[in-house]
Amino acid sequence: MKRYFLFLFFLFCTSALKTNAQTDTAFWFVAPEVWAGHSDSPIYLRFASFDNPATISITQPANAGFPQQTVSLNANDAQSINLTNWLDIIENKPVNQILNYGIYISSTAPITAYYEEASTNNPDLISLKGKNALGTEFYTPFQNLLNSQYSQSKAGIDIVATEDNTYIEITPTQNLIGYTANTTMSINLNRGQTYSLRSASTLSYLRPSGTYISSDKPIAVTISDDSVNGISYYGGNNYDLLADQIIPVNKMGQEYIGIKGQLTLDDKIYITASEDNTIITSGDNILSVINAGESYELSLPNNAIYFSTSKPVIALHMTGYGSEICGAILPSINCTGSQNVSFIRSLNNPFFKLNILVKSGAEDDFLFNGDPNLITAENFSDVPNTNGEWKFASISNPSYVQILQNSNIVNNLDFFHVGIIMGRQSSSRYGYFSNYNTFSHEITSSSDSYCEGESLILSGENFPNLDFNWSGPNGFTANGNDYNFGSISQADSGIYVLTGDIGDCQVRSDTFHLSVSNLDDASFSVESFCQGSTNSATITGLNGGVFSLVNSLDVTTINPFNGELSNTTIGANYQIMYQTNGDCPNSDTQNLSVLPFEDASFTIDNFCYGSTNNAVITGVSAGQFSLTSNPNGALIDNISGELSNTTPGSIYTVEYTTPGSLSSCSSSSEQNVEVYSIPNNPNTTNLYEYCAGETINTINVLPQEQNSTIQWYSDIALSNLIIQSEAYQIPYSIGTTIVYVTETSENNCVSNPTPISQIINPLPNIYAGNDTVVCFGESIILNGSGGLNYFWNNGVQNNIPLTLEVGQYEFIVTADNINNCFNQDTIEVIIHANPNAYAGANANVCGLEYQLQANDNGNFGFWSSNNATVTSISSPTTNIINEYYGVNSFTWTETNGFGCESNSSVSINFLEQPNINILNDTTYGCEDESVFIEGGSTNASSFLWTTSGTGTFQNQNLALTEYMFSNEDLNNQIINIYLRAQLKDCYSSDTSLIILNKKPQVDIFSDETLCFADSNINLNIITKGISPLSYELELNDEIILSFSSMSEGQHSLLISDLGYYRISNLKDAFCYGENSEKFNLILRNNPQAEFTLYPRETSINEPTIYVNDQSLFANYYEWSFGDGTDLHFDMDTEHDYENAGNYNIKLVVDDEFGCTDSITKQVIIHPNFELFIPNSFTPDGDRINDTFGCKGYGISTYTISILNRWGELVFNSNDINIEWDGNNSINGVYAYRIDIVDMIGKSHYFEGEISLLR
Q1: Does residue 686 sit in helix, strand or coil?
Q2: Are 49 and 101 in contact (CB under 8 A)?
Q3: Where are the domains of the chain?
Q4: Which of 987, 1061, 1097, 1111 could serve as 1164's disulfide partner, Cβ 3.0–4.6 Å?
Q5: pLDDT, mean of residues 1080-1109
Q6: How confident is the model at residue 446 (pLDDT cuts 50, 70, 90)?
Q7: What pLDDT sits at residue 558?
Q8: DSSP assignment string, 177-235
Q9: 741 vs 527: CA distance, rounded Å
Q10: Nearest CA to 710 among 743, 754, 745?
Q11: 743-789 pLDDT, tens per residue?
């Protein structure tokens, strides 16, 4: 439920109470760990009620080990509960673990609640903000002025989930324990589970301010700053806790007023932005522009300050008492506040101040516990820079605020904000009772779902001066707190919006989704039925209703759940009612009757498979046929009853069902139908084939079934019966004759015809060829014709050449045709002997001349050759002259008396000196590479490589060889290579040079370091090799630059991209080199310069400034103090100023890599405070000593008051330059009081007398 809780602002900084209380009935909270070494107990929950009593339950939903606590409050009551016994399962520790320590508080009536760590020296209070603490997006604010005193007391962030399966992401702005800055981490929490994060450092500027937290379901977040050391800024000797439950981004505001506490110096307000480009303004001054997650420190030196922002921010106010600090989240003042506040003062402290903030005009309308005379208009002053719109009051030590009592403040005229400051020398506390949310409307009704015809009143929650403007569907508009619809219909369904403002404050609208439902659909269907059958109704509307009989006069009953009738009477009429029981009940009725049965008789005959079988209807027509017994998937025509897709030999049950009518009931009857099997085709051979002249056989066919007969037909149509017999001989006829055989069963079912073919094929006409005479060695081919396949005697193959021995032969060929019919023929063959020719043995000769010597057998003969001169062609012995070196063939041919011829050949190899040539006179080789050398010869038969070096050859006897040189060869650089070639018994050789080169080398490096502020560094490349050189520069294995025509030596270039650099593809004039080692360019982290200085402001009387280095990663320090003096180089140092002024102190730091950083802070040296006060003046118009005034320097604020002897004020001023002129005053002695605050904040006052003389 949305309620209008205006901003009740309680600034509460005491040892008793620090509460940013939000009135609510449910609160989620996780308590931070406070280091026990500096006190962390006792711990309390404190509650205050309003006009109604409340019962409060305290649980840990994720921890069954925590006992439920119950607190009962009367109306306007206050109670506390001590939880110290369970401190170890309430404080959220250890860090970085999922814990079950979330606290859930529920109440039967609105209350305020806060958690108090009530130790003596390190206390604080955390106000519980109810639903205003819950959200899905947060930025964490922290102070960055003061360090934590102890290493165990680091700033913390604690998270609690309100629902199961909550996914949370955290992006810290500084290093946390276990997590790195600016790296997003994630966790998953269930309802009531918690998670704790802690800063990795106790240093103030490393607080995780601006850490971003997001979740997919509502969570609550607590921040804490344990044992904060205020000595460096506020003096004293105090270490104090600062903690609060923060608000999500959607509850942040843009206007704030801070009211100063009671610290010795200025309060601090830390403003953290939720969006980029957030402008912070106070008065007419733009203070800063910050981005999301960044913070700005705003000083609060005086009583109150107003500031605004261009976009929503969260503001953490650090205040306190003396030097005891505390802090809390400021609420926005824009359209927030309360008219009724209750709070508790838990302890009696020496200091108590009540601060109240209200708009002008309502400052005289306050009631404290019902008394109008305790808080009055005289207590209020204007808030600076608000043009009188806001008033504030600071009431010190009001006696009417009692210890552990419910203090109630009411203003019936306007909304207000209240703050409380309480403190003592050892501690302080701080908190607010405020609604952090802006005003919003709330629409209430008894329900959001209605039925047509019901009544509806919409109401808006009422507040003073609140407008009510209603709008809705169909142009609906109305005004006023309530709107009465009267009877509603579906046309009223839709979204209704309530708007309206309170003065200049915009009140957030509320919406109401009105759903008007139709009456339940009570429709159903039921049909008239036949006696003995069922009649269940079919509900077509809303299920779950009840059936009943409306007009039953007999013993008929009805099933209330399905509408089925029992004990009915044929011919009777009944009326049935169906009533729904849904959200909008309704009813409907239907009529039905009990009907007689129709005649369903029919006939159908058995039939042979494949024929038709229509049924004949003898009863009521227009019905439908179906199969009730269907053993193998037959089909039936539902109109004619014809069966199809039947199986021979099967019996089917056919059912005929009449159509039924309004006055009669459908009935059915059944008959069995047998499908006779068709005899199988006669089992016989289908083809009888003969060659001409073979005997024709009689064909016998036996029936497949008993009592069947066999028929023979001459045509496929079975129209010409040849014979009915089991045996039949087809007549002889060259060619093909076909007859058809059938079998007829005793049921007169005829089989399909079986065709039988008789083929009589003619014989082939075979011819073996003409008789043949040949010489020995000549091949003959026996090639028969007239057939398909040929088979010769003696293993001879048809049309295949064969060679026979000398003699006379007879060959017979047998062949078939395509019909496998055979015939044969004969041929005679004679073979004559050949002469025996011999040309002599092969020989190798040197030169081109030779004598051939063949055998002389007395036959005619002759020599033949190419490219040679033969002296006697017809003589077995003859001289020859060859025309070339090499092998030549010479043939001697003889012919005998039968004309048979033979020849013999001899090969003569005419040898010459081999030619040889190494293709390259000079060959270049590279280190770690192979050297290949190739020789050439047109006639050499073998090769042999040798060397003057000490290397070896691969393939030493081939024309192309690989020379594997030795280290000695590489050092000698030049060696000789020899190649010898052989042709038969002749040899020759050639010589060449090999020049060997070492591979080029490269190295890359840099003597420089890349820091954040640097743009690039020099990369040095050193090469060694034979010019020209070329290479490529890679970055992360990708080529970025190519170099060519380079000389050996050093080359440098500028680089800035991060990654691994390498030189690749190195090549000089002859050889390739290896890639360089990789050079890794990394970005070195700059050192982070930081230092503290104390004091930030002082006077020339105390000119010593102490600076302490707080830098990270630094090992060199250089201090300059802005006054022209020498530099200092110590880590920590001090400096004395000789003159007053504003000086910039600059620290420059370096790290081990030469990276640098600097930071500058300003110190203010005020002049000495001095004041001259005269003791008389003479206002006589002579321009000498005519006025009374003071002179001095080192003055920040100045106030003078002058009284006459009757105690009347005659003059006062806040400006030292405005002097008293004594006008309208008589001569005499006057008393003065002068109040001074010097430039370092010290107060001085002077009292005395001044004489006015004329």
Answers
A1: coil
A2: no
A3: 24-429, 446-517, 524-595, 602-676, 687-761, 772-832, 843-911, 916-922+947-996, 1001-1076, 1091-1166, 1170-1252
A4: 1097
A5: 86
A6: low
A7: 85
A8: TTB-TT--EEEEE-TT-EEEEEBS---GGGS-TT-EEEEEEEEEEEEEEEEEE-HHHH-
A9: 62
A10: 743
A11: 888 888 888 898 988 888 888 888 888 888 888 888 888 888 888 88
CATH 3.40.630.30 fits 772-832, yes or no: no
pLDDT in tens, 812-833: 988 888 888 888 889 998 888 8
pLDDT over 70 (residue 448): no
User: What was the pLDDT predicted at 1207?
Assistant: 78
The dihedral built from the CA positions of residue 141, 144, 150 and 154, taken in this order, carries a sign that is positive
- Supply 24's token pair: 């609510």
Strands 843-846 vs 901-911: parallel, antiparallel or unpaired = parallel
Three-state SS sequence of 876-915: CEEEEEECCCEEEEEEEEEECCCCCEEEEEEEEEEECCCC
- DSSP structure class, residue 64: T
Could you tell me which of 1091, 1085, 1080 has the C-alpha nearest to residue 1150? 1085
Bridge partners of 111, per DSSP, are 24, 49
At residue 1238, what are phi and psi to the nearest 5 degrees? -80, -175
- Cα–Cα distance, 229 to 234 (Å, whole number): 9
Q: What is the pLDDT of residues 796-815, one digit of tens each?
A: 888 888 888 888 888 898 88
For residues 245 and 127, what is the distance between their CA atoms, to the nearest angstrom?
7
Residue in the block written with tokens 């997590």: 179
pLDDT in tens, 20-38: 336 889 999 999 999 988 8
Q: What is the DSSP letter of 378?
A: G
Q: Which pLDDT belongs to residue 548?
A: 86
pTM of the model: 0.45
Closest Cα partner for 38 from 229, 197, 198, 320? Answer: 229
What CATH class does 602-676 carry? mainly beta
Length of the chain: 1254
The span from the CA of 978 to the CA of 992, in Å, is: 7
- b/e map 1075-1085, b = 16+ CB within 10 Å: ebeebebeebe
Q: Which CATH superfamily is domain 687-761 in?
A: Immunoglobulins (2.60.40.10)
Strand residues in 714-840 grouped as ranges (E): 721-723, 727-728, 735-744, 754-761, 772-775, 779-781, 789-792, 801-803, 807-816, 822-832
Give the integer Cα–Cα distance in Å for 376 and 890: 150
- pLDDT category at 16 given cuts 50, 70, 90 is very low
Average pLDDT over residues 679-698: 84
Average pLDDT, the chain: 87
Listed in sequence order, the residues at least 6 apart from 808 whose beta carbon sits closer than 8 Å to its beta carbon are: 828, 829, 830, 831
Q: Are 343 and 8 in contact (CB under 8 A)?
A: no
Q: For 1059-1094, what is each residue's pLDDT tens digit?
A: 899 999 999 988 998 888 988 888 787 888 999 888
* CATH number of the domain located at residue range(s) 524-595 in this protein: 2.60.40
Grouping H, G, I as helix, E, B as strand and the rest as coil, residue 475 is helix
| Residue located via tokens 């009931």 | 665
Residue keyed to tokens 């118009």: 1181
And the tokens for 1110? 């707080």
Query: In whole angstroms, how far apart are CA 731 and each of 106, 505, 686, 822?
Result: 117, 125, 16, 23
Quickly state the pLDDT bin for 794 (edges 50, 70, 90): confident
How is domain 446-517 classified at the CATH fold level? Answer: Immunoglobulin-like (2.60.40)
The pair of three-digit structure tokens given for residue 606, joined into one six-digit string: 């058995």
**Topology match between the domains 843-911 and 1091-1166:** yes
Identify residue 1025 by its one-letter amino acid code.
G
Report the sign of the C-alpha dihedral through residues 877, 879, 882, 887, in that order.
positive
For 1130, list phi and psi in degrees, rounded to 5: -85, 160
Question: Do residues 592 and 529 lie in contact, with contact meaning Cβ atoms separated by under 8 Å?
Answer: yes
Residue from 322, 325, 292, 324 nearest 309 by CA: 292
Residue whose tokens read 């050889």: 1071
Residues 538, 602 contacting (CB under 8 angstroms): no
